[in-house]
Design a protein that fits this description.
The protein contains twelve helices and eight strands. The protein is an alpha/beta fold. Strands 2-1-3-4-6-5-7-8 form an eight-stranded mixed beta sheet, with helices on both faces.
């Protein structure tokens, strides 16, 4: 912690992101962990819109604003140009490349761009700050949105009790690309996040980090609860901390007292309707999927 506190701040204060937003916490921790200069690309979304209001920027490092769907393609092009210039002797210093995108720009409309960059083997790190919906454009559901969540396009009412489908397991999809490093973490577990950031930057080739980043507005939680909500997501095993290094799985955290998923759900206004008698079966379904995913993950890790 003392070491990180001495690092130059790459994302300055004064940006327009909401109080309690998980995204800037994630970015500040990750950029502080970097030990080499970073060139970043940010997809259109909350993080980009609120940190680059013309003519100002909250970023102290080189930044490229990408469209919603192509942050991975943008930074892979920059990385390819860097390799060419370095081979020509026109650049002699080490530079690392990172792309950031929310779950809308990563799980959904950015998945093709991300998959292509990973398959091509670019030496880059892609970071998804997962807030579970298209928060920047009105809290529409994404494929990262949990089943039962109340969003503007999956509203809880008489017809449907929130989003009907379970969320996509993007971390598993990225692991299936057989890239050198894949991990899942949260800003509440800062040692875990910093360690995984440094591992991702150190590998020769592509790396992917999926980081839970609560949105107080969309999740309907008090801004001061962001870190606690992250911890509870991990302690319920809804959001396990694990990594995949060259195909080998490691679970980084085993809760001493695994909490029921309902404790995580009841802290968020977007799931309030699930606690009505007619909807409690959805909580049971979420618990069952969480338990089966946790058990499978531990088997993959050999535990």
């Amino acid at each position: 912690m003392r070491e990180l506190s001495k690092q130059e701040v790459s994302l300055t204060g004064g940006h327009r992101l909401c109080a309690g937003c998980g995204a800037p916490i994630v970015v500040r921790q990750m950029m502080a962990a970097a030990e080499t200069p970073i060139v970043a690309s940010v997809a259109t979304g909350c993080l980009e819109v609120a940190t680059t209001i013309f003519p100002y920027t909250a970023w102290a490092n080189p930044l490229i604003h990408s469209a919603f769907e192509n942050s991975a393609a943008t930074i892979s092009g920059a990385e390819a140009a860097y390799r060419s210039l370095k081979a020509q002797g026109r650049i002699d210093k080490d530079i690392k490349f990172m792309a950031f995108g929310g779950d809308g720009g990563t799980y959904d409309i950015g998945l093709q761009s991300l998959s292509g960059a990973m398959e091509r083997g670019h030496d880059m790190v892609y970071v998804c700050y997962d807030n579970g919906a298209y928060m920047n454009t009105g809290i529409q559901r994404s494929s990262a949105t949990p089943k039962g969540a109340d969003t503007s396009t999956s509203p809880a009412g008489r017809k449907i009790p929130g989003k009907p489908e379970h969320r996509k397991d993007l971390t598993a999809i990225m692991a299936a690309h057989n890239i050198p490093y894949v991990a899942q973490t949260t800003p509440a577990h800062w040692r875990d996040l910093v360690t995984k950031t440094r591992k991702a930057l150190a590998v020769d080739g592509p790396a992917f980090l999926n980081v839970l980043a609560p949105c107080p507005r969309g999740w309907r939680v008090p801004p001061e609860d962001t870190i606690d909500i992250c911890r509870l997501a991990v302690d319920t095993c809804y959001w396990p901390l694990f990594e995949v290094e060259d195909g080998e799985y490691t679970v980084n955290y085993q809760p001493r007292d695994k909490r029921p998923v309902s404790e995580w759900l009841e802290r968020q206004g977007r799931f309030r309707h699930l606690f009505r008698d007619e909807n409690k079966g959805i909580i049971d379904d979420l618990q069952d999927v969480t338990d089966r995913t946790w058990e499978r993950l531990n088997r993959q890790a050999g535990d």
